[in-house]
Amino acid sequence: NLSYVFDGDTVTSSRPDRPARPGTYTVDGSADPKRLVLDLPDAGKVNAIYKIDGKTLTLCLATDGGGHPTAFESKPAPTTDLLTLEKQ
């Protein structure tokens, strides 16, 4: 299971096969869709879009180092991953 913990301007990602690693993030809530840039130790800077609905955070990550995605969908080229996270 992949998890992200957002606290202040820090995000910590973890999964069972590796230790938790903190990174940082910045938000542009004025963009449509809203934008997020994650700076993670293993992946470097990752451009993303996000939306929040109650306790659900939906992220669409540009996993190939490209610009911000334009839609909430997974696709092969340019590569994007769609994640739905529930607040614990």
Mean pLDDT comes to 91
- Biggest sheet: strands, sense, closure? 8 strands, antiparallel
Order of neighbouring strands in the sheet with most strands: 1-2-3-4-5-6-8-7
Cα separation of the termini: 13 Å
| Shape type | globular
Strand content: over 45%
Helix content: under 10%
Please trace the helix and strand order, writing H or E for each element.
Answer: EEEEEEEE
Q: How many extended strands? A: 8
Our Rg estimate from Cα atoms comes to 12 Å
The total of helices stands at 0
Which secondary-structure class do the elements indicate? mainly beta
Give the low-confidence spans.
Answer: none
Explain what this protein looks like in three dimensions.
The protein is mostly beta strands. 0% of the residues lie in helices and 64% in strands. It contains no helices and eight strands. The chain has strands at 3-7, 10-15, 18-28, 34-40, 44-53, 56-62, 75-76, 79-86. An eight-stranded antiparallel β-sheet has the order 1-2-3-4-5-6-8-7, with no helix packed on it. The radius of gyration is 12 Å and the shape is globular. It starts with a strand and ends with a strand. The mean pLDDT is 91.
Descriptive keywords:
single chain, 88 residues, 8-stranded antiparallel sheet, 8 strands
